[in-house]
Amino acid sequence: MKSPLLNKLSKTFRSKPQFNWLLLCLVSVLVVIALLGSSSSSAFNSVTSSVKPDIYTNYRKLKEQARSDYLELKGLSVRENQIKDVGLCGKERENYVPCYNVSANTLAGFKDGEELDRHCELSREHQYCLIRPTKDYKIPLSWPAGRDVIWSGNVKLTKDQFLSSGSIMKRLMLLEENQIAFHSQDGLIVDDVKDYSHQIAEMIGLGSDTEFLQAGVRTVLDIGCGFGSFSAHLLSLNLMALCVGAYESSGSQVQLTLERGLPAIIGNFISKQLPFPSLSYDMVHCAQCGIIWDSKDGLFLIEIDRVLKPGGYFILTSPITRQQGSSTSSKKGSMSTPLEEITKKLCWSLLEQQEETFVWQKTVDSQCYTSGKQGMVPLCKGEDMQLYYQPLARCISGTGSNRWVPILSRSGSLNSTELKVHGVHPEDFFEDSGFWKSAVRNYWSLLSPLIFSDHPKRPGDDDPLPPYNMVRNVLDMNAHYGGLNAALLEASKSVWVMNVVPLGVHNTLPLILDRGFAGVLHNWCEPFLTYPRTYDLLHGNGLLSHIASQGCNIIELLLEMDRILRPEGWVILSDKLGPIEKVRTLATQIRWEARVIDLQNGSDQRLLVCQKPFVGK
Questions:
Q1: 253, 227 in Cβ contact below 8 A?
Q2: What keywords tag this UniProt record (predicted)?
């Protein structure tokens, strides 16, 4: 009759024979080592004292290795019952963007346009699956070719939507058999965009759009940017132009702009503030963006005033505005009454109107808002440093901020005085800058052989040839001071970076924006403001530890990262050993290739480098 222990072992080994036989072998090795260690003490005594430390060290290492292997196998066995390989989502989710479910929002009682807004509190279905690429998806062309030609199968755009595109920015493209071609900077018809940009510069009082930087314009918020042609032109002038467009289930301007390798995020002017602090941009631009600016008693214009820096410009091009105003070029006074009244209450000056285009400038005098004029928009109470998707406010922000500095008074790069305004010690800032310069060199030397030698073959395509790299759109998920962005620019890498400052950390977004970079506030417990397959490289320094402190679900974060990462895209995470090892295990469940790299600096910091494969249909 078998003992209870033997019965238990028998049942265990029948349930999982392969794993448990391996476990038994490891335990046996431990037992043998222990027996040898005790029975061979007399032999060890006959060996010279100089050899004893080596024998003991080797024995201890072998014992510790066996124990480590046993614990790892045990841990894998436990996790095997908790996590299964993640499968592919259905075809209907190929272009899925969480938090934008119009049907659910309507059922929840949202109306008057709010059903089209972002409502993550209603999107809690948490379907654990991987967003698959579209049937005809192809890896985007390398920059700068990818700016001018994209694969039509990579975006959701019907022929009818293409033909109905009416604005300047949307007209400048050609639909071919499997490509959408945008007119390059050397093209002939691109003169429309160049002429338009030159017109805006003249209306501001400049000789040419090449003088935007001298006029203090470095950052531009382009609302409803069409498909990015104006933004592409501004980038060629070394301006940072960020496209913000409403969510669209198909024909999305944000999706096409990102596919071209240009900065863009989803954002609505409906009921909530944009994810930027006050005094963020030098210029805000709207060309036929579909917003009725004088509706809701100017609530949308108040939001524009909030994000504009003192002395910043608001450019509006709209045939509707032209019909309300004058059709001839004029100076102040030919505006339609509603817009004229609202802009006066905001202390804006109308610089000039030409045909359908109007240019206003925000005041540089913070006392203008407290001048006592009747009907002025009241001041907000307190500052909005950590506001995140709060309701649109009917008050003026930023007048009491230390950052109330006219755009013409700002230096090209942040000096010690400006750093102190942001609460940053200059020594810390410059030390951070030096660290990222070194890190970028290491990242590029690390990724280059992997990109050109070790990445999986693309279906039906040959490997790319140097000097082109496969990284254009970069998402820094915990940007701190924007040091990675600055180091990439200094190294002349052909990339742009979306700098994300997570909720719950010191809000450095005002500093990042004042450096002339793109950035947003974001809660990483929620999905990001973008379409699937829109970034080439995701980077996070200390992100995993932050996520753990916020109580976010790590597997949901990884699935979200997989959603926004392009096939063959890269992930670089830097963190402590514990979080890195946990994510390395989870990465295999979502089919990523993962490598852990010891930094060899004596700390427990590790790099986790992952690549997303081109998953079959």
A1: yes
A2: Glycoprotein, Membrane, Methyltransferase, Signal-anchor, Transferase, Transmembrane, Transmembrane helix
Q: Compute the Cα dihedral for 29, 35, 41, 42 and give only its sign.
A: negative
The SS3 assignment for 481 reads: coil
Tell me: the pLDDT tens digits for 269-316?
888 899 899 999 999 999 988 888 988 889 999 999 999 999 999 999
Cα distance between residue 129 and residue 132, in whole Å: 9
| Model pTM score | 0.81
Residue 288: other Cβ atoms inside 10 A? 19
Q: Are 383 and 490 in contact (CB under 8 A)?
A: no
Dist. CA 66–CA 33, nearest whole Å: 10
Residue 564 · residue 589 · CB < 8 Å: no
Beta strands 605-611 and 565-576: pairing type?
antiparallel
Q: Concatenated DSSP letters for 361-430?
A: EE-S-GGGGGS--TTPPPBPSS--TT--SPBP-SSB-STTSTT---GGG--SS--HHHHHHTT--HHHHH
What is the domain partition of the chain in residue ranges? 85-132, 416-451+467-612
Query: How many whole angstroms separate alpha carbon 421 and alpha carbon 216?
Result: 19
Measure the CA–CA gap between 430 and 517, rounded to whole angstroms.
17
CA atoms within 13 A on the CB side of 257: 31
Rounded percentage of the chain residues whose pLDDT exceeds 90: 49
Q: What pLDDT is recorded for position 185?
A: 44
26, 186, 226, 394, 517 from 197: Cα distances, Å: 72, 16, 15, 32, 21
Q: Are strands 149-151 and 240-245 parallel, antiparallel or unpaired?
A: unpaired
Quote the crossing angle between the two packed helices 4-15 and 17-39, to the nearest 10°.
130
Q: What is the pLDDT of residue 179?
A: 86
Residue 362 · residue 311 · CB < 8 Å? yes
Tell me: the pLDDT tens digits for 56-92?
334 344 444 444 444 444 444 444 445 578 999 999 9
Q: What is the pLDDT of residue 102?
A: 83
281, 282, 285, 291: CA torsion to nearest 10:
50
Cα angle 278, 282, 286 (rounded to 5 degrees) comes to 95
